[in-house]
Design a protein that fits this description.
There is one protein chain. The chain has 14 helices and no strands. The chain is an all-alpha fold. The protein has two domains: 135 residues, Orthogonal Bundle (Ammonium transporter fold); 131 residues, Ammonium transporter fold, CATH 1.10.3430.10. α8 packs across α9, α9 packs across α10 and α13 packs across α14. The longest helix is centred in the C-terminal third of the chain and has 23 residues. Belongs to the urea transporter family. Its main location: membrane. It comes from Phocaeicola dorei. This is Urea transporter. It is found in: Cell membrane.
């Protein structure tokens, strides 16, 4: 059996974090991890823990070596680790549930890889956390942290804060510097990705301002992070990809706003749903064009 060096393991870890924002680059992941630690060392540790657990689950299950190497089994676990730290109180049960959810996300990733209609993106993370929150709400509500309500006292949009937090909130980070580290992580790997990240976080803010959405929601980055992922997922170097990315970003804003109004813990569901819808539309358009 081939042994994996510590260096190779760190590369896998870095890519697993970078892949949260579609960056198959260990340096990108390192910069993002530094950004998380700047905001909260606890969330940084949990991000690493979730990444390692989900990746180990893939290794033990004998899943594709290349996919594991490229961090494709690590990024959902990364998000789960952070999410558990955001929504739950620290305890032994907390750690056990994080481990179970991280492993579960790996198996969902595997299920998505068996079909070629739609990519899973962060759907395994979404399903795992929704199930986890549902179980805790039903059986052990004391494990859950009390969520803070968004105040409506803010009357003006802070565009710098909305920009930075719109990027940082991709991984639940409410810190301006963290958002800039995430942007730098993308920048070292792809200038095109940097452009689409900026587009994905700014366009929702402008659209939401026009729509009259509460400025506090914008300042917290809640309307931008799904747009960032949409733009990164669909954006390319052609005008056609730019337009598709634009449509997906705007659709994600509508879905996010609707989800919040309905009291849903949306996570990155607006991103996944909007990109899936656009991809289906692309297939329809391409089929008619043949």
């Amino acid at each position: 059996m081939k042994t994996i060096s510590i260096y190779d393991s760190l590369l896998v870890l870095g890519r697993g974090i970078g892949q949260v924002m579609f960056q198959n680059n260990a340096l990108s992941g390192l910069l993002m991890l530094v950004g998380i630690f700047l905001n909260s060392w606890q969330l940084g540790v949990l991000a690493v823990g979730g990444n390692i657990i989900s990746t180990l689950a893939a290794c033990i299950s004998g899943y594709g070596r290349d996919d594991i190497k490229n961090g494709l089994y690590g990024f959902n676990g990364t998000l789960i680790g952070i999410a558990v730290g955001v929504f739950m109180q620290l305890s032994l049960w907390f750690l056990l549930l994080m481990a179970v959810a991280s492993c579960f996300s790996t198996w969902i990733v595997r299920l998505f890889s068996r079909q070629h209609s739609l990519p899973g993106f962060t759907a395994p993370f979404i399903f795992s956390v929704w199930i986890l929150l549902g179980i805790c709400t039903w059986i052990t509500p004391d494990l859950l942290l009390v969520s803070e309500t968004v105040s409506d006292t803010v009357r003006e949009v802070d565009y710098v804060q909305a920009f930075c937090l719109g990027i940082g909130q991709v991984m639940f980070q409410e810190n301006l510097l963290t958002g800039l580290f995430f942007l730098a992580g993308i920048g070292v790997n792809s200038w095109t990705g940097t452009f689409y990240t900026a587009l994905g976080t700014l366009l929702p803010v402008l659209f939401a301002v026009f729509w009259g959405i509460d400025p506090e929601m914008l300042n917290m980055g809640l309307m931008g992070y799904n747009g960032v992922l949409c733009a990164l997922a669909l954006g390319g170097k052609t005008w056609k990809s730019f337009v598709w990315a634009l449509c997906s970003v705007l659709l994600s804003v509508v879905l996010q706003f609707a989800g919040i109004k309905l009291g849903i813990t949306t996570l990155t569901a607006p991103f996944v749903l909007s990109v899936w819808m656009i991809m289906i539309m692309q297939k329809v358009v391409n089929t008619k064009g043949e």
